[in-house]
From TrEMBL:
Keyword Transmembrane: yes
Transmembrane intervals: 6-25, 37-56, 93-115
Organism: Nocardioides cavernaquae
Protein name in UniProt: Integral membrane protein
Keyword Transmembrane helix: yes
Alphabetic keyword roster: Membrane, Transmembrane, Transmembrane helix
Length: 118
């Protein structure tokens, strides 16, 4: 189970890199497109995160369900936003919403754990 968890974590992090990298690559563009790599990064990061929770639950790990719910809502919002705007591109406001939510999801993952164990 630990190997599966580690592999899913790698997939989750690489997908996140595709998501955030794709978004940041559009920062100076006047027409902010939603590239397929960005969209697939969001989708895969979301699904890998869900699978990670399942593996942790299956391995009797202590899972913070509130944290998982917050990350799930944020991740779903990012995927939904990018899916909805995949053909038209992002307005400047929606672009910054997508970037902000993506960074917020990482902050929840890192800071919630740190604060919880401090």
């Amino acid at each position: 189970m630990d190997l599966l968890r580690q592999l899913l974590l790698v997939v989750h992090l690489v997908a996140f890199a595709a998501l955030l990298g794709g978004l940041l690559g559009q920062a100076k563009a006047t027409q902010k497109a939603v590239h397929q790599s960005t969209l697939w990064g969001a989708r895969i990061a979301f699904l890998a995160g869900l699978l990670l929770v399942g593996v942790l639950e299956g391995g009797d790990a202590d899972v913070d369900h509130t944290k998982v719910a917050v990350k799930l809502v944020i991740g779903f919002a990012v995927v939904g936003l990018l899916e909805a705007r995949s053909k038209k591109g992002l307005t400047d406001v929606l672009y910054w919403v997508a970037v902000g939510l993506t960074v917020a999801n990482v902050a929840v993952a890192v800071l919630w754990t740190s604060a919880h164990h401090a």
